[in-house]
Amino acid sequence: MTQSILVTGGAGYIGSHVCKELARAGYLPVTLDNLVTGRRDFVRFGPLIESCVSNTDAVRKAIKQYDIKAVIDLAGSIEVAESVIDPLKYYNNNLAVKIPFLHILRECGVRVFVFSSTAAVYGEPVAVPIAETHPLLPKNPYGRSKLAFEHLLQEFHHAGGPAWMALRYFNAAGASMDGDIGESHDPETHLIPRACMAALGKTPQLDIYGNDYPTPDGTALRDYVHVQDLASAHILAVQALLKGATPGAYNLGNGVGTSIGEVMECFTQLGLRVPHAFKGRRAGDPARLVADISAVKKALGWSPEHTSIESIIRSAYRWHESCLKLTKAS
Questions:
Q1: pLDDT digit string (tens) for 18-32?
Q2: d(CA 223, CA 172)
Q3: Angstrom distance (rounded) from CA 42 to CA 13
Q4: What does the alpha-carbon distance between residue 183 and residue 236 come to, in Å, rounded to a whole number?
Q5: Residue 246 pLDDT more than 70?
Q6: β-pairing, 221-222 with 258-259?
Q7: Cα radius of gyration rounded to whole Å, the chain
Q8: Is the dihedral of CA 98, 135, 253, 212 positive or negative?
Q9: DSSP code at position 243
């Protein structure tokens, strides 16, 4: 019998890739998503339950109908700048609405909970690369709400809740290697899709914030990890927890820093012109954010496969280009 896994936020960018990888691995991904930010057309790999995690009746019904023993939670709000403007939204969506959800999981005997967390829990880095032992000092409501839920999972587990892992993403990027699904946010705030949109003429230019950082080319250094690699880590986390692995939090990144300047140079080498302009630094943006991924390699046997920035950009651009062609054809 095919094992079913409940994926909250499964209609989103990372969630849809997780569902795709689950299906490829022989699982049935059951998506629970209210479609406020998710896309219905991204739900292609299993059934969709159109609901919020706080709808306890819908959650209970789904768990019983599909005999759910494991949950991958990607539901929530993700924009740092918005979290500063509207902190209540972030504490509600990333923490408060999930409390009744956790009650139902324990009531229904769900054994495993894998949580989509973020490198924002670390705040301003005091050492790079950043290991899981780095101080947890988030600088914004987004990071603080994610960290609060990590603490809740740990304490809930000690009180009889499911075994858990929190996967702390660095910069998720790219699209599925077959061009099937990709990154789509409204508004789009991430560098590589914004660069793709500028290269395709969908936006006038790419704004780059800061070219005076203490880095080799003056632009901020980030750790870009391919979304398909992120997705595979979630499956390994579920499998490990079902076998009795120790709960905990792990970084997911490439383990290598790439500057915005290097990203732009890669676009140029691929023959893609990206109109751009430099703006002043944004408050709170660190010069370097790079993951130490040695712990997750040891615990889950996970390593990223699509490690070159060129392969990440190629996959992202291919998907955005195909979307533009479909738009023009319709």
A1: 999 999 999 999 999
A2: 8
A3: 8
A4: 23
A5: yes
A6: antiparallel
A7: 19
A8: positive
A9: T
For residue range 98-144, what is the model confidence (pLDDT) as tens digits?
Answer: 999 999 999 999 999 999 999 999 999 999 999 999 999 999 999 99
According to the model, what pLDDT value does residue 78 have? 93
| Catalytic (active site) residue 169 | no
- The reported pLDDT for the residue numbered 326 is 72
CA gap 237, 301 in Å, rounded: 10
**DSSP of 145-196, one letter per residue?**
HHHHHHHHHHHHHHTT--EEEEEEE-EEE---TTSS-----SS---HHHHHH
Tell me which residue of 201, 195, 321, 322 sits closest to 267, measured CA to CA.
195
Strand arrangement, sheet containing 221-222: 258-259, 221-222, 288-289
Where does the pLDDT of residue 185 fall: very low under 50, low under 70, confident under 90, or very high at 90 and above? confident
- Give the angle 53-54-57 at the CA atoms, nearest 5°: 90
∠229-181-192 over CA atoms, to 5°?
A: 70
Catalytic residue among 13, 90, 122, 142: 142
What residue has token string 């889950």?
A: 300
> Residue 27 is encoded by which pair of tokens?
């699982």
Confidence (pLDDT) at 330: 58
**Quick one: CA torsion of 192, 198, 200, 201, rounded to 10 degrees?**
160
pLDDT digits (tens, 9 = 90+) for 59-96: 999 999 999 999 999 999 999 989 999 999 999 999 99
More confident residue, 187 or 58: 58
Cβ(18)–Cβ(74) below 8 Å: yes
Q: What tokens does 179 get?
A: 């061009």
**Measured distance CA(321)–CA(202) in Å, rounded:** 10
221, containing H or E segment: strand 221-222
Find residue 208's DSSP bridge partners. Answer: 278
